[in-house]
Amino acid sequence: MALLAENNSRARALAGGTDLVVDLKHAPGDVDLLVDISQLPEFSGIEETEEGLRIGSMVTFSELMASPIVNQMTPEIVAASHTVGAVQTRNLGTIGGNLVTCVPSADSAPSLLALDAIATIAGSDGKRSVPLEEFFVGPRKTILEPHELLAEILIPKKNLGKPSHFIKFGLRKGQALALVNVAAALYLNDDGKVAEPRIALGAVAPTPMFARKAEASLDGKRPNEESLLEAARVAVSEIKPIDDFRASANYRRHLVQTLTYRTLKRSAEIASEQ
Amino acid sequence: MKKRGRGIACMWYPIGFTVAANPSAATVKINTDGTATLLTGTVETGQGALTVLGQIAAETLGIATDDVHVVSADTDATPMDTGAIASRTTYVTGNAIIKAAEQAREILFEAAAPMLSVKPEQLEAHDRKIQVIGFPQQYKTIGEVAHHSEIVIGRPAIGSGSYNPPTVEMDPETGQGKPFSTYVYATQIADVEVDDETGEVEVLRIVAIHDCGTPINPMLVEGQIQGGISMGIGFALQEEILFKDGKQVNPNLTNYIMPTSLDMPELEVDMVDNYDPTGPFGAKGAGEPTAVPTAAAIMNAIYDAVGVRITSLPATSEKVLSAILEQKAA
Amino acid sequence: MATKTKEVLESKVKDSEIEDLTAPDSLKVPAKPALKPVVVPVDKPVVYPLDLPESEIRLRTPAVGQRASRPDGRLHGLGQTQYIDDMTFPHMIFAKILRSEHAHAKILSIDTSEAEAMPGVLATLTGSEIPVNSFGPTLQDQPVLANEIVRHAGDGVAAVAALTEQQASDALTKIKVKYKPLPTVFDPLEAIKDDAPKVHAPRSNIYASKIIKKGDVEKALKESDQVFHKQFKTQMVEHVPLEPHSSVAMWDANGRVTIYSSLGRITLGRDDLARTLGKPMNKIRLVGTIVGGNFGGKNEITTEPILAMLSKKTGRPVKGTFTRGDEFISSTTRHPFVMDYTTGVKKDGQILGRKIRLVLDGGSYCSWTSTTLGKGGILAAGPYNIANLLVEAHAVYTNKTTTGAMRGFGAPQVCFAYESHMDDMAHALGIDPLEMRLRNAFTEGSVSPTGQLLQSVAIKESLQQAAERFGWKESAK
Amino acid sequence: MIVKLKVNGETRSADVPPETTLLKLLREHLNLTGAKLGCDVGDCGTCTVIVDGESVNSCLMLAGRASGREVTTIEGLASSEQLHPLQEKFEELGALQCGFCGPGMIISAKALLDKNPEPTVFEVKDALSGNLCRCTGYTKIIEAILDAGRIMSTAEAKS
């Protein structure tokens, strides 16, 4: 970290390298110093602690998918990990790298957001924690200072096993970039009403985001077609999608509506099965 | 909701160049042990041409595939060839090889005739033997004959030949003429599922039945069909070079969307039983046509599933959804 | 690992032994020679079985009809197939090509002096140094390296040969090209208009046309029970061979040049090289290996004359391998088609007459457009008996990537149109799509759109066999 | 920088610039050209090798990171007596055409079968989604992998 701090903008931390090595090839002169952090023990490992499920930032997507704890407690994180790149990139790519790169379409972000994940940041002057939502500042921009690194992700204990569903929509099935990512999570009260709904969206705004108004519209309601559709419609009003060569903003709005409805519906089904 | 649909498309496709001469030449050298070397100027581009051409030479000489070694693609050493283009290799180069091999074989027949006390025209090459037609028990092995011809008589069994498909110039006013020697035919049927809320098209299964005349090597023909279909699926649903102000915006494999293993449906491919008397052992060709009807079959299946006619390719999920929404609005 | 890239690189240059320069005196010694990294120990050969028994199928007679395995298949599986980029030769150097960022512009000047002073650079090349700076299978309208006008963003304008690929790439950024932008046209339907900017001024943008005429189409349409019309369009597609184009050229003391190339057609490739290099054919040796995917995209020379000239300038083998980006922007692609179909049918589904207009986006150069136009036009009516037919097909230049040969030469485009059109008509007439096709399909002895008597026709058989295999009847809704 | 690693069971080392990828190290410094350069950015999979049991895109891994680790390339599969079952089945079924994707495909398949010798068709497709092929439509490749898996699990059951 001292190395990163003293070299400031000309230094980069190297995690899995699936994005950074490509960047270096495109602009070889931009970086003077690479610090390999992928093997740091304090940034690795998956474990259940008092606070919840701790995922080291240097955990690869393949490790996440193979982890019994993650499969059991947060299966949607496994599902989301499975949509990242292909086997070879999942073997190299880390969850921390995916979040720090901070592209709007980062596949790991929505399912983590939906479970109110917390990011722990390590700096030369100690550690701090922020809700993952605040970690993202803009496209390719996080709150990390040059001397700081993302150390770990924590899924709070109360959200382990929270009914959740994730859908990635891309232009093909293998190795796809997301046009839209949607993750939903919710509880059902004893009287069958929705509690603590979360709707997290990717690739439809400068950063991965919550659809807070949509969540509010669903909170306390029975999850029927009317309430779920209404939430999906409200979610569309909250996003700021762009037109690009992959898809129009309008199409992304359609997808958000359809996929928000589907993820909420599936989450509610899981909840009622429990 | 996901809706199922099926679509059929058939096609025809010519072998070789449009009118223009596109000859191939070949040389076949029979070794004194009865194995052979084939020289061809074509290039193996993955389709299995050299294997098929070796099989054609072997068949003409009555020997096995493995008995022929194929030398290719060196302008210093191999005869001219118009090349791996226009689905012409099996047909055009194949016919040239038959002529070359027949010429070499004729030398063996002439050497064997006195050995078997018959006339050369009474002989055939079969099962690594030169034998008397109708009397297969009267034979000499091809190795014995080749050795005798080269070492005793002093006449090495080497043959060369060339072939150019016969065509007739097209009339400039009406286009009437005979631009190609022969054509192949095919049908593909696609079974698809269309999500009418996202426009996503999933191809579940494609049945493809192709005519290539005699399949010289059915395994390689199947490979051509399967590969052609994957290219056809990309053309149908995903692939497009996009421009902004005249510059490509997706010149990479991240954003140029070609099918991955996960995008491929179940394929059932087979061949029509057919024989073209103008082709080598009845064969025509199989390279390009395999990619031709796929997109049309998929578009017809989309229509069958959700009732929208896609008139411009590729049928991206966005395009399909907007056609569905337009139809609902109308 | 914590590595200071820059520092390490600099220290490396200091420690380095200077590259052995055996090249002629005319060669400029690179200012900052890069090091040849030292390979330390063991270079054990790769191990694999040398005497496997042959598969029984390859030993069978008769040979035709056998599912014989491919001899190259084993080498592929072992990783032992030598593609061009796997080849190295002593003293081999690497070439890179600078490409135009403009879709249409006049080249005012090209200054390579700064690039020549870059570390590791041994030579540069521009179009004016190529003996005959044009090529193309039908029309020789394409420069090897553009030196007067660039016609699409991707035209090569200058080349660099250096000790490493990275040095060659770095040097490209130092070449200064001054352009004067010219008006552009990208849409083929715009390009076909009289007042459109001319891609090859003063010539018309329409550079090839084909007409096929049979019977009396207007009369047939009048006599039809129903007439259908629809326009179809297709997109530009890339071949995507997994192996990018690659070649190595080396000039020898007898003035012969040997070129190893990923070309799929060496005989005509040598013709093109003899022409562009101004050399007799017997002074050129073109060798192909197994091409790592072609699909029509490797049917023409691309960088081969450039590498040959750079080899002549440096006295070394010169390798040039496309990046994936080069593969997209500078190789050929599939023609986009705009297709207008008008078809008259009887109530029972019989096609009486068909009128077709095809406009092919020919991109910036002709390449294999004439063949695509011919095949597309001839095949456009489909495998059907149609007594009255008019096909009019035109290819037009645009300031886009060159379109050329690609698997099917226009057939996938027109098949998409005629088979979509066929289904529309079947649905409108209430006829099963399979039946609609069977009623019109060619049979043995049918006459093609060009008046050819067809033999070995198997279209109905393929339709029926496919329908049976699919379960067409059973799956009817 | 000096990179020392184990490649196909042999200890190898090379002095390379720090920005060298594992792919360049293998191809240019160790003369192992089985892994190919098809895109250089991790999209095509032709450069796939196994590092410590996991398949990776060697074009995305810096050589320095492979230091001290065990790398298996396509050249490490066969012995002087026999082909690897994957190589055998790929050849027998005509699974490869131009062959350029082949080494990467076989390495991805090996990484799969080493962990899961009896995969489903979906698992095979999923394991190959990072290896593009333009010739074959993947069909015969998938068949060959399933067949090779059967051979490998039978051989394992016998031993």
Structure description:
The complex is a heterotetramer of chains A (274), B (330), C (477) and D (159). Chain A is α+β, with helices and mostly antiparallel strands and 274 residues long. In chain A, 37% of the residues lie in helices and 26% in strands. Chain A has a five-stranded antiparallel sheet with strand order 3-4-9-5-6. In chain A, helix 10 (212-218) packs antiparallel against helix 11. The longest helix of chain A has 25 residues, at 249-273. Chain B folds into two domains: 2-14 and 182-329, 2-Layer Sandwich (Aldehyde Oxidoreductase, domain 4); 24-162, 2-Layer Sandwich (Aldehyde Oxidoreductase, domain 4), CATH 3.30.365. Helices cover 30% and strands 25% of the residues of chain B. Chain B is built from six helices and 13 strands. In chain B, the strands form four sheets. Chain B has a four-stranded mixed sheet with strand order 1-9-10-13. Chain C has a domain at 188-238 and 333-470: Aldehyde oxidase/xanthine dehydrogenase, molybdopterin binding domain (Aldehyde Oxidoreductase, domain 4), CATH 3.30.365.10. Chain C has 13 helices and 16 strands. Chain C has a seven-stranded mixed sheet, with helices on both faces. In chain C, strands 8-16-15-14-9 form a five-stranded mixed sheet, with helices on both faces. In chain C, helix 10 (369-379) runs parallel beside helix 11 (411-429). The radius of gyration of chain D is 15 Å and the shape is globular. Chain D is built from five helices and five strands; from the N terminus they run ββαβββαααα. In chain D, helix 3 (102-115) crosses helix 5 (139-158). Helices cover 36% and strands 14% of the residues of chain D. The mean pLDDT of chain D is 96. Chains in contact: A-B, A-C, A-D, B-C, B-D, C-D. At the B-C interface, strand 1, helix 1, strand 9, strand 10 and helix 4 of B face strand 8, strand 9, helix 7, strand 12 and helix 9 of C.
Q: What top-tier CATH class of the largest domain in chain A fits best?
A: Alpha Beta
Shape summary of chain D: globular
CATH fold assignment of the largest domain in chain A: Uridine Diphospho-n-acetylenolpyruvylglucosamine Reductase, domain 3
SSE pattern of chain A, N- to C-terminal: HEHEEEHHHHHHEEHEEEEEEEHHH
Beta-strand share of residues of chain A? 25-35%
Poorly predicted runs of 5 or more residues of chain D: none
H-E string of chain D? EEHEEEHHHH
- In angstroms, what separates the terminal alpha carbons of chain D? 43 Å
Q: Show the largest interface.
A: B-C, 128 and 123 residues
Biggest β-sheet of chain A: count, sense, barrel? Answer: 5 strands, antiparallel
Give the CATH superfamily of the largest domain in chain D: Beta-grasp domain
Number of domains of chain D: 2
Average pLDDT score of chain A: 94
Strand order in space, largest sheet of chain D: 2-1-5-3-4
Q: Tell me the helix content of chain D.
A: 25-40%
